[in-house]
Amino acid sequence: MPRSRSLITAAVLLSSLVSSTAPLAPLRASAQTRETTLAQARPAADALVACDILIVGGGLAGTATAYESLRGGHTVCMTELTDWVGGQISSQGTTALDEAPRQRALLWYAQGYNELRDRIEAKYGKLNPGGCWVSVACFMPYDANDMLMEMLAEAEREGGGELKWFPNTVVKELSLNAAGNQIDSVVAIQHSPAPGTAPLNSERLSQIIEDAYTYDDSARLAKTVIQFVPTEAAEGAGDRPADWYVVEATETGELIALAGVPYQLGLDPRSPLNPSSPVTSRDPYCPQAFTYTFAMEHTEDEQTYDLPSFYETYRPIYGFDPRNIDAVKDPQGYFDFVFTYRRIWNASPQRSDTIFGVPRPAPGDISMQNWLPGNDYNPGTDRDNLVYTQEQLQAMGQLEPGGWLGGLRTDTLRRGEESALGYFYWLATSDTNNPNFQDDPIFGDNIKDPYPYLTLLQGFDSPMGTAHGLSKYPYMREGRRIIGRPTYGYESGFVVNELDFSMTDFADEYYKETLSDREYLSLRRYLAGLETLDSFQPDIDPDDIPMRMRSRIYPDAVGISQYSIDFHPCYAEYPVEKPGNIERPGVRQAHGKAYPAQIPLRAMIPQNIDNMLVASKSIATSTAAAASYRVHSFEWSVGAAAGHTVDFALREGVLPFELVDDLPRQEPLLEQLKQEIEASGNPVMFPDTSIFNQDWQDWRS
């Protein structure tokens, strides 16, 4: 239910801070040293904070890591750019849980994710208070933050841990040990409104993000510089191989860039392991679209709207996706289709007038918009890519000491915000002579009728918790993805690939035509399963090699994930809103069904840094794998795995990479870790999914 008109502010645990003048060693010098206008001299820290585990990023993965770590009795510091925990289901506004049907039917999820679902149902009296039809659970973003904070508080009490929560906080610099293989300390900046200024969340993110990453107070923001250090460092030198662990849980992989570990961005080059890629060499500028979500309410009376000054710029983007065309039949039906798709509050659940089995829109209903083509923003060139590459960061000076500004292109954030606000205006008003409607089976007359019964929900008590009505942070489908450490069978570094879990028919002529004969033979051998040895017979015909009907099973699996490979591709030209612009051709080739998959520990361990784990969408995946692994339940599962792995590493005095460095030989400590994870209610594999069960068709996502 919509909550009362009150502003909720997160408490900052400043009681845990002590002043410090201890100097910090600088980050390793970059390969290119030069003067830069970005670099700032680091001031003395205002506060020193000690913890066993530092989690950078309070999204779902970071929250799950904190939840398990607190249950393990640890002192946990967690930073977050916004003031809400939960990422996708709170600050990013995507409160429609993406779930695979059979996994949902069995509730085969991490324990904390199941608890979250239970809390949603208890909060509203039903799991789907929005009455949406894209999911069985659509609900309010502000409630997601509240529920997760309650879960963390209970984990803290039950496990005896301590949470030090730092909202409105960004990481600015890392310091490494003399060997360069461990993070010794982390410098962060927490911001608050400058005296006499408006509350936070008054401006859109693009208007304050660079300010948030600078040390100096500004006219808008007051800053507190915080130095995070391991608990042992505050009490005396420890004898463990690592005194603490830093968990990368940001939405774009910020620590990956700052720490200088190898990673990839965008499209992978076509290969036998990723054969659906449309490019032959890496394209780092074509990740998936990002989305600023917003919530709109259906009103009883007609509303009036002010034309945004930027509306005409983005108008070529907008349109209706012609799915389910036979069901909607007319423009009104199409609007109802869009509104109810992710409706997060249903004020009239008993209405008998339905569409897709749910009540049609009525006054008081609230819909969250996350739509293509609509408020998706799809940059795809080096002129507008949102997540800067390492080369771009180097050239800008962001990798110099004091130069980090978050690693995002601020102008592209702004364009994404404007296009989202323009999309709301487009939904509510008329549109004529729009080229998007040419030959459209519904809008064949090139006219979109107005629907003036909508209001954009704005204010600190609104579902998004912002004065402007947009989500506090964009929904990020993809960012930097690490390349894991070289290991047996992965000489260039471990990565989860398309062939590891896709249900695509790789015997299709497309793959014979786009791959060389040798590459196609490699593809078929990789998919041979129990017949792998036989596939190496001399002069074998690749088409005679049987293909396993399951995903790859990993000996180091510490979590699970299942969802279709779902692409929101980049656009081909600059800028996104260029009239006639199209999706990058070929990107959707991998789009489709997927088998249930696993999360290998090797995908969470970065190169070079021994006391850092990745617990977010930045694990080692290819483009196709990232398009499947990015959903809500995956984020919780990988976060739970990170929490347990760090707890185990601290208790056993072992570094995470040492748990997998002898694979495929038996790793006794790895087996012990997996048993502990499963015993805690966090599955590492799906039921009845072994190498001997060759038919996983019942698990179609």
Please give a structural write-up.
By secondary structure, the chain is an alpha+beta fold. The chain contains 17 helices and 24 strands. A five-stranded parallel sheet has the order 4-3-2-8-24. Strands 1-7-6-5 form a four-stranded mixed sheet. A four-stranded antiparallel sheet has the order 12-15-11-19.
List the main descriptive attributes of the protein structure presented here.
single chain; 701 residues; alpha+beta; 4-stranded mixed beta sheet; 24 strands
Walk me through the topology.
Elements: E1 47-51, E2 53-56, H1 60-71, E3 75-79, H2 101-106, H3 111-124, H4 141-159, E4 162-166, E5 169-176, E6 183-193, H5 205-212, E7 221-230, H6 231-235, E8 245-248, H7 254-259, E9 263-264, E10 290-291, E11 294-298, H8 311-314, H9 325-328, H10 331-341, E12 343-345, E13 354-355, E14 358-359, E15 366-369, E16 376-377, H11 390-396, H12 410-428, E17 431-432, E18 447-448, E19 454-456, E20 475-476, E21 481-482, H13 509-514, H14 517-526, E22 557-561, E23 597-600, E24 612-614, H15 623-629, H16 632-652, H17 668-679
Parallel strand pairs: 1-7, 2-3, 2-8, 3-4, 8-24
Antiparallel strand pairs: 5-6, 6-7, 9-21, 10-16, 10-20, 11-15, 11-19, 12-15, 13-14, 17-18, 22-23
Helix pairs in contact: 1-4, 1-16, 5-12
Question: Which bin fits the share of residues in helices?
Answer: 10-25%
Strand content: 5-15%
Which regions are unreliable across 5 or more consecutive residues at pLDDT < 50?
Answer: 4-36
Give the N-to-C terminal Cα separation.
31 Å
User: Mean pLDDT, as a whole number?
Assistant: 91
Oligomer: single chain
Biggest sheet overview: 5 strands, parallel
Give me the side-by-side strand order of the main sheet. 4-3-2-8-24
- Which structural class do you get from the secondary structure elements? alpha+beta
The count of strands amounts to: 24
**What is the rounded Rg?**
25 Å
What is the overall shape?
A: globular
Number of helices: 17
